[in-house]
Amino acid sequence: MQIFATSFLFTIIIFFAILYNIIKILKQYERGVIFTLGKVSTEQGVKGPGIIFLWPGIQKMVRVSLRTVTMDVPSQDVITKDNVTVKVNAVVYFRVIDPAKAVIEVEDFYYATSQIAQTTLRSVLGQNTFDDLLSNRDAINAELQKVIDQQTEPWGVKVTTVEVKNVDLPAEMQRAIAIQAQAERERRAKIIHAEGELQASAKLSEAAAVISKNPIALQLRYLQTLTEIGTEKNTTIVFPLPIEFMSAFQKLIEKKN
After folding, report:
1. Which residues pair with 164 in a beta bridge?
2. Whether 74 contacts 115, CB under 8 Å
3. For the chain, which domains are there?
4. 3-state SS assignment for residue 37
5. What is the SS3 assignment for 144-192?
6. CA-CA distance, 121 to 219, in Å (whole number)?
7. Which among 2, 223, 241, 246 is least surrounded, fewest beta carbons within 10 Å?
8. CA nearest 91: which of 69, 119, 107?
9. Residues 158 and 68 sit within 8 Å (Cβ to Cβ)
10. What is the helix (H) or strand (E) element at residue 19, kind and residue range?
């Protein structure tokens, strides 16, 4: 009786082991590349999602995920076109569009895409100047995506987006950029000040033209200035001096000369 129970249990284990090798369940985002006697059929080579039945010992299945993969590209030492050394890292978004190629054409498509991304990051950024790296980020990202996608296309991998994340500068370059930014702000301040002086001179010229037509306006402006001084600074003592007196004094000096 004990031998029968042991044989029955052993049979059940073998049955479930065979059943496990025959029936495979693939999730919605998974596909199975079926190898039949070591070959992949062009028609029945890729199956899923759902329940997949395999011939044990004859067929073998490799799971491939179709979801978008987010891969960090480690920091790379890049020498730009104008000989500036920077450390740059990026992020790559890609997904498998042809599961059969991703399994057959390359040993590990994730590792291969990572290596291609690193080498392409160094080569593409090395063809741009440092200023382009900071200002033309969108164009550089598009160029990186195009180059990497062309190299991974034979593997059935589609690179959708490449984004440069951080650009680490040496301390000397940071100081140089800070000095340049400060000089740029000073230049803009001087230009704004000069434009203000130009506009003020134009308005003063217009005011002088108006006062020259009516001399009494200058006297009124003089009295208005005295009023403002007396209001703002009460401790200041002002002795008004008629403008006519100054004019007569000037004429007297001219006659003596």
Report:
1. 90
2. no
3. 11-64 (no CATH), 69-174 (3.30.479.30), 203-257 (no CATH)
4. coil
5. HHHHHHHHHHHHCEEEEEEEEEEEECCHHHHHHHHHHHHHHHHHHHHHH
6. 74
7. 2
8. 69
9. no
10. helix 2-22
The burial class, CB within 10 Å (0-12 / 13-18 / 19+), for 113 is buried
Token digits of residue 149:
């996608």
Half-sphere exposure of 137 (CA within 13 A, CB side): 11
